Amino acid sequence: MAEETASMSIYRASRTIKRRQSSLYNSLRSIHEDSIFVSEIAQLWPELPLVANLRCGLWYAKKFHSNCYFKSTDGHTNNLSFNTSRLNLHVAILAGNEFIRQKGGCMIVDSTRKGKRFPDSMSKTIPIWTCVLNRAIQNYRDKINKPIDEFSPNIMLFACIQLSSSSSQWDSSLHLPLWVPDTEKARIESNINKWVNQLEESGADISSFSSLLKKPLRPLWISQKTVIWLNEVPDYNSWDFTPIILISSSASSDIYRQKTSSEFSWNYIAGAGDDEESWARGLTPLLFWNNVYDLINSGPDLCNQKVADFVEKDRVYRAQRGHNAPQVSIKPTKMEIKSSSHFQDRSLEIIMENDDTGHLIYWLGFTNLAVCATGYDFKAFDADCVLNCDQNKDLCTLEDSEAHLHLPIMNSKFDRFSLQRNLPSALHFAKLHLKKGKRLAVCCNNGEDISVCVCLAILISLFNVEGVYDDGKSFKETQITKFDMRQRLIFLCKYAVNARPSRGNLKQVFNFLAGATY
C-alpha cells in the first residue's frame, strides 16, 4: 500500500512538473522565438508564398499566403498512404503560378513536438505527394503527345505549349530526406504507381496544375540545424525543379529547455503550436499575432489573465460586428480543353472574400454555394440566404427571416447521427433557394468540417456531374457510390482550401445519400 501511494505521488509530481513546463506563457514564448527563424528563412526567398500546414504551422507567422493540410499519419511507417480526400491541389497551383509572381515554388511551415527535426508530414507525406503529382503530370503529357490526327487543332496547340514549356527531362523520381531508411523508401516506391492511379481515377483536374508547372515539384528541407551561407543562397535559375521548401520551425535538441530573458525565465517547448486545444485557452493564431507583444511582455504570472481578456474582447467584438470586406479573386489561366474529370468545373477561378479578422468565405465556382465560418455580415458578401450549422444561433444580418435557417448540428464525436438527421432539412432549404438562382452560404463553427459536409451533400443531391444545378434529377437517376462522393469532395476542396471534413461526418453524408428517399 505504501509503495502504491509512493508511485502515485511520483506520477502526480511528474504530471505537475509537465503542466508547469507546458504553461501558456512557455508555449507562446516558444512560438514567438521559433517564428523569428521562420521569418529569416522566408526573407531568403521573398518571392515565394508562405503556406501554413494546419493546424500547428498556422501559429508560426503573422501572415500566410494560404494554408494546406498534409497529415503526419499519412507518412507513418505502418500507415503510408496518399489520401485523395486531402489532395492539396491548390498548393501545386500556387507553386506553379508564375503569372502572379516572378518565380515558381512555395514554402510550407510546420513543427513537431517529438524532438525530431521534421514531422512525418514533411519527411514522407509531402515527398510522396510531390512524386505522385509529378508522375501524374508526366502520364497526362504522354497521353496528349500522340499522333496528330487523333486530336483537334486546339488540343494540338495546347500539347505543343505544354511540351515546349516543360523541361526535356521531367524528374518524376521519389525524393526523400536522408534520414528515411532505405527499406521504407523501397516500400514507398513500390506504392507510388498505385497512388498515381488513385489520383487519376479520382477525377482530379490534372490539366490545371500541369499547365502551370513548368518544372517538376521537389521538396527541400530546412530546420534550425540547417546551415545556409547567406552569400551563397542558390538562385532560382540554377534549379531545374519547382521548389517546395519545407520549414520545420522548432529546435529539435530538447523538448524542454530553460531560457532566460532580461525580465523573465521560461521553458522552451519544441512544437509548442501543436495540440492547441490543450493549452491555448481559446486563443487563436490571429488573436495571438494581433496582441503578440502585450502577451510576450506580460510575463508568466499575468499571461493567462491577458489571454482571457483578449479572448473575451474578441468574442464580444464578433457578436457585435458587421463590417464590409474586400473581395479577392485569383484567376489562373483557363483551359480550352476538357480533362477526363467527370465533375469538371467551368473555370479555374477561385473566389475568396475575407473580413478584417482574416477569415474567409469560399464560393464554389459557379454553383452559388459558399462555405465559411459563422459570424459574417452575409449581406456584405452578396449572400442571399444562410444555412447556419453551428451550435450557437448566430445573429443574421439578412433582412428576410425566411432566408436564414439554423440547424444546430453536433460534431460526430458527440452525436454520431446529428448531421444525418439534419440533412433533409438542409437539402430542402438549399433546394428552395438555389432553384430561384439565389446565392447560399453554408456556415459552421470553423467553416472546415460540418459546413463542408453539408455543401457536399447539396452538390451531390442537387447538381449534375458537370456542376450545374438540375434540381436533383441526375441524383435520382443514379446510385451514389463512394467514388462519386470522393470526386465531388475533390471539386469542393479545390475552392474551399480550408476544408477538413472528419471521417465520421463524411460517413453520415454517404449513409444518408445512399438511402435517401426525400
Give the topology.
Elements: H1 2-21, H2 24-44, E1 50-53, E2 66-68, H3 89-96, E3 106-110, H4 120-144, H5 153-165, H6 182-201, H7 206-212, E4 217-222, E5 242-248, E6 256-260, E7 265-269, H8 285-290, H9 292-320, E8 327-330, E9 350-354, E10 360-363, E11 369-373, E12 385-388, E13 404-406, H10 418-434, E14 440-444, H11 450-462, H12 473-477, H13 482-495, H14 503-514
Parallel strand pairs: 1-2, 1-3, 3-5, 4-5, 11-14, 12-13, 12-14
Antiparallel strand pairs: 6-7, 8-9, 9-10, 10-11
Helix pairs in contact: 2-9, 4-6, 4-7, 10-11, 11-13, 11-14
What features would you describe in this structure?
This protein is of the alpha/beta class and 518 residues long. The chain is 41% helix and 13% strand. It has a 7-stranded mixed β-sheet, covered by helices on one side. α2 (24-44) packs across α9 (292-320), α4 (120-144) packs across α7 and α11 (450-462) packs parallel to α14.
Sum up the structure in keywords.
518 residues; alpha/beta; Rit1_DUSP-like; tRNA adenosine(64)-2'-O-ribosylphosphate transferase activity
Number of strands: 14
Oligomer: single chain
SSE order, as H and E?
Answer: HHEEHEHHHHEEEEHHEEEEEEHEHHHH
Structural shape: globular
Query: How far apart, in Å, are the first and last alpha carbons?
Result: 63 Å
Which regions are unreliable across 5 or more consecutive residues at pLDDT < 50? Answer: 148-167, 322-350
Helix content: 40-55%
Number of helices: 14
The description of the largest β-sheet is: 7 strands, mixed
**Averaged pLDDT, please?**
81
Structural class: alpha/beta
Side by side, the strands of the main sheet go 8-9-10-11-14-12-13
Strand content: 5-15%
- Gyration radius, in Å: 24 Å
